[in-house]
Amino acid sequence: MSLEVTGKLIVKYDTAQVSDKFKKREFVLELAEEINGNIYTNYAKMQLVQNKCEIIDRYNIGDVVKVSFNVKGTRYEKDGKVNYFSNLDAWRVEPANAGAPAGSNNQPAPAYNNNNNYNNNNNGGNYNSGATSYPQQGGGQVVDDLPF
Fold first, then answer.
1. Which domains does the chain have, with CATH numbers?
2. d(CA 148, CA 145)
3. How far is CA 69 from CA 2, 6, 52, in A?
4. Beta pairing, strands 16-19 & 22-35
5. How far apart are CA 94 and CA 106, in angstroms?
């Protein structure tokens, strides 16, 4: 499964040679999402592996980029205890505005939070504002898009 995310590049780590046959390079994106007029910020640590490690070199801290990635999960057992971990394996990084047709009506990404707080409304990190919004059609009808 391939996914995409757009965010501001805030950290680039050096390439790490994990083993003789495996190397990786991690980087962090700041992701901003506007919900009910409030901007919430999250951070996603992603990795590039093998021959993809260098593709982040052409971008600078502060650049807004679009990253195509896969979610990879691993199950492992140690001392009789089963555990899991996930990686966000990036395979393409491009400028955020790449591929957008001229004059497109795409909505702009929300403004990024530059004061390093988790959100701008100082609600103590409560992500639920209490308001519930349902998708509606032009006449104000609630759209029932559930398959059951």
1. 2-95 (2.40.50.140)
2. 9
3. 6, 11, 12
4. antiparallel
5. 17
45-72: pLDDT as tens digits: 999 999 999 999 999 999 999 999 999 9
Encoded tokens for 3: 């996914």
Both tokens of 19, joined, read: 């083993």
- Strand, helix or coil for residue 114: coil
Query: Whole-model pTM?
Result: 0.61
Contact present, 65 and 48 (Cβ < 8 Å): no
Residue that is written with structure tokens 């559930």 in the block:
146
Give pLDDT tens digits for 70-91: 999 999 999 999 999 899 999 9
107, burial (CB in 10 Å: exposed 0-12, middle 13-18, buried 19+): exposed
Task: Determine how β-strand 16-19 pairs with β-strand 64-78.
Answer: unpaired
**Residue 113 DSSP class:** -
Residue 54's SS3 state is helix
